[in-house]
Amino acid sequence: MKRIVKPKKRTSIVFGFCCVLIVIVLVLSSAKNLSSSSIAQNTKRNLDYPIVGTNQTKFYDNSTEINTQTVGDDFYGQNANYPKNTPKYKDNGDGTVTDLVTSLMWQQSPDTNGDGKITARDKMTYKEAVAGAASFNLGGYTDWRLPTIKEQYSLIVFSGVDPSGYKGSTLDGLKPFIDTDYFKFAYGDTNDGERIIDSQYASSTMYVDGELLFGVNFADGRIKGYGLKMPFGPGDKTFFVTYVRGNKNYGINKFNDNGDGTISDKATGLMWMQNDNKKGTTWQEALNYAENYEFAGYSDWRLPNVKELQSIVDYSRSPNTSDSAAIDPIFNCSEIVNEAGQKDYPFYWSSTTHSNWSTDMNGRNASYVSFGRAMGYMDGKWMDVHGAGAQRSDPKIGNPKDWPEGHGPQGDAQRINNYVRLVRDIK
């Protein structure tokens, strides 16, 4: 008689042992993945000041939209190559919207009458905006506040197009610099004597050097310092207002000098070069400089997008009040001589194209942030028209001498050769 019990027993033991090993491996693998996921989520939650991406997905050369750029291409390194935190919102169904990246909750519409229409009559003066926050009640919350300029700027997206110069009879071809799937928006009311671009939103941040209020224009995609009086005619200037609540640490940097020429911001998760590049360059040169730069053991430096760049502005500083650039003194900032012959500080390029509605110049300009005076030519002279910390745009190529009196109604200086401060993500 053949004995077959032992072989069967041995086979069963081996089979069972293998099954146990497989289960252990799967459990450990799941635990590892869960742990990694939890760490990643916790890291994201621990950032008090996460920068929302610009939502710019298109690629541009010095004038027009182009095909996707890959490593080695002439215009690689621009905003669309580094999309960062995709904007994400939740419509709470009660007139409020929660930003899922920043944890800020927003008033969904600047409509003050509750009639669902946004007109010039919904705008407020700065004093009215400040006073209104104290009594504002929406969604069952009463702790609303007028946003800082950094909070307000978190909502801007650069999938919009600048309508400056637009002569069309309708607004169908235009796209604002805010997500209209979640937020209510209106261009300036031309029937009420406004320009299309008159869609400025008030912040609580005043310019430290003069009676200017920093605001975000979601029609043309800029930060400017606006006078509190109407520029033409009597009365106080009015703004759209959307109040905010939650995450009171948003916009507050936590800089650390790493001692190797780099500065970490623990609030945003970004590492910055302590020095700038010390000279003005064209936009394409800035991209190439960033993509080929190695420093402090890192080779993943890049040109920051405009929202990252604006995150390091210090709005408590200015050339006149602190004899410095509008940036924390932990950074080193090159000095320049501005158009008025004053000691000043540069405009800095971002990787973000400032798209225009015109097909022949939709990619001509790139956004910059002014860490010195935002110069303009008005009343026959050069002056600081919009304040250190303004975000505007410059042509990517050209000769600054072709713009002896600047550009636009406030004669914005067109420098073209702007400075560079590189950034990388803290891994």
UniProtKB/TrEMBL annotation:
Task: Please give the InterPro entries that the UniProt record associates with this protein.
Answer: Lcl_C (IPR011460)
Name residues in a coiled coil: none
Superkingdom of this entry's organism?
Answer: Bacteria
Region Disordered: start-end pairs: 389-417
Domain Lcl C-terminal residue range list: 95-226, 261-366
Q: What is this protein called?
A: DUF1566 domain-containing protein
What organism is recorded for this protein? Zobellia barbeyronii
> Taxonomy-wise, where does this protein's organism fall, top ranks first?
Bacteria, Pseudomonadati, Bacteroidota, Flavobacteriia, Flavobacteriales
